Structure formats: C-alpha cells, structure tokens
Amino acid sequence: MGEALIFLYKTTNLINGKFYIGVHRTYDINDGYIGCGVRSQAYAVATNRFGIKSAFIRAVVKYGYENFKREILEFFDTVEEAYAREKEIVDLPFLQRKDTYNTALGGKGSIKPSNAEIHRDVIREEYQNGATIVGLAKKYKTTSTSIKTAIIDLPKHVYKRESLIKYSNEFKEAVITDYRAGMVFAKMINKYSIDIKTIKKICAGTERPKKSKKAAELKGRGRFKGHVFVKNSTEYVVETTLPEFCEKHDLNYQTAIKMIKGSVLNHRGWTYRDTKTTLKTNRFAGVKVAKDGKIYDIPPRFSHFNAAHGVTYAAMKMLISGKIKQTKGFTVYHG
C-alpha cells in the first residue's frame, strides 16, 4: 500500500472564492476528499441532513461538490508537523476573515471560539457607536454573556451607557409628555411599541402625577355601584362607592363585602338584596331539603343557605346530586 501521504490543503469555492484550509492523511492522493469528511455530494447532503453543523458542508450542499477545487499547499512527514503548520495559519485573525469557511482554530484538538471572540474588534466598535448588547448577540448569533465579555474592558461610561441613541429627540419628548400627563403604561406601550423598561429609561428623572386616594377608591371600589341593601323593609342603593355608602349609613365596609359574597346574611339590621343579573344562576334553586322535620327551600343564592345553616357548598351539591344521602342532618325532601 505504501506510506501514507500527509499534507496541508486548501479547498476553494469556484463560484464565490471562499476557501477552507485543513490537514489530510491518505494513501490515495486522488481520493476525492475536499474537507470536513466530504468526498461526494451525497455525503455532504446526508451529513447536513443529520444536523452536523459546518459552514463548509452547508456550502457544498448549496453550490455542489463539483464547484470546489482542492490544492495541496505543503507535504509533511508526520501528522503533528502538519497540525502545527495549520495552527500557525488558522489563527483568530484568520477566522475573522469573510472569505474563509474555517470556524475553528487550527491544530489537533482545535477549539472553536465563540462568534463574540471571532468578531471581537467589530463588536467593540459597534457597541461604542450605540449598538445594544442584545442586538449584537442576535446579529452575531451568540449569547449576551459573550458580548459582555468582549466589551468588559471598555471604560465604564461606555460600558454602562443606556442604549437610547436610536430614539429621536421628538420621540422621547412625546413619551415624556404622555408620562407627565399620567398616561398608563399599557397605553404607552401600545402607542409607541416599546417596553416598560425603555419608557422608564426615557422618562428617568421626570415627575409623574400621583393618583389621589379618592381616585384610587373610585377605580378600585366603584364596582359595587347599583347594589342594594335593605333595612327595616327600606331599600338603599349604592350610588357612588361602597366605602361612602357604608360611612353614610354606619355600616362596616368589610362586613358589607361579606354580605355581598353571601358569607354574612345580616349586620346591624341590614341585609343584602342581589339585583345583579350577571351572577350565575343556582341550578339547585327550588330544590327542597329537610332536617329535624323541617323543610327548607334552596334559595337562588346557594351561599346564603350554606352560611345560615353551617354546611358547605360541596357537601350540599353532593347531597342534591344523590352522591351522598345526608350531610349535617340534611336530606333531600321528595314529598
């Protein structure tokens, strides 16, 4: 078979001029090998399909095996000498070139640097010109951590600068004007298509009007407007807010909430009458239950009955559905 041939080669794309440099060991100098294990178009297609990431293999799939030409640069007596020579040629500045398919440093057991390391000088320049860390990470297909490592030795005033350069002064003024006017963040996000962090950066140091206590009450508790309470057969309607209604009629606010929810039936002679049609209808309303010889009708609001008689909603539901025969002495009345 003879001695193996060891050489450093260069494979060039005849269409765009980009090239790949590598080391090859073979007994047949005309074995068709052009780099990264590729000896045919079928091999390149199959390798690419199985997800092996290689810029050179993707190029062979795209341009065709026949459009690549290999040339031998140097012969060597040992593989170690060949890899040492490759390491001298394929260094970091070589990987930064735009006309090469090499993505890893030369030499045996070569290390593939991150894109942030390969394009370090360009990234630093772009960052100092206003590019954001997130934008650079997306552009060079790397992580934000790698970008930060590439620019970490820059002066602090450059490294920590807020990246608002892309927004015009007119845009910033419009945002600040709405911010001062008290526009809520949700509306500002929709109006200007920016996130809340950017809004806060633009408006840093700008005073924002604080909502009055009365406005907060009207927003948070005005939902009870129209509810009806009864005392001595007289109905009283909540016309503004529930806190104002309770203060006017000497009614405890928290207890009034419990009355609306149904956990309290009366308070200081007051009862609550539900007039809201939006409440869910009790499907067991009208069903009769019995206890100790007394018969009870299930009211439209199940919670009122449960609170008055000390039974849980789940237990009464199971009783009426027939899953249990009795709960707390109650049974379904079929008479």
Structural features, described:
This protein is α+β, with helices and mostly antiparallel strands. The chain contains 17 helices and 10 strands. The longest helix is centred in the middle third of the chain and has 12 residues. The protein folds into 5 domains: 106 residues, 3-Layer(aba) Sandwich (GIY-YIG endonuclease); 44 residues; 34 residues; 61 residues, Winged helix-like DNA-binding domain superfamily/Winged helix DNA-binding domain (Arc Repressor Mutant, subunit A, Orthogonal Bundle); 45 residues, no CATH class. About 5% of the residues have low confidence. Helix 1 packs across helix 2 and helix 7 packs across helix 8. A 4-stranded antiparallel sheet has the order 5-4-7-6, with helices on one face. Strands 2-1-3 form a 3-stranded antiparallel sheet. Helices cover 40% and strands 15% of the residues.
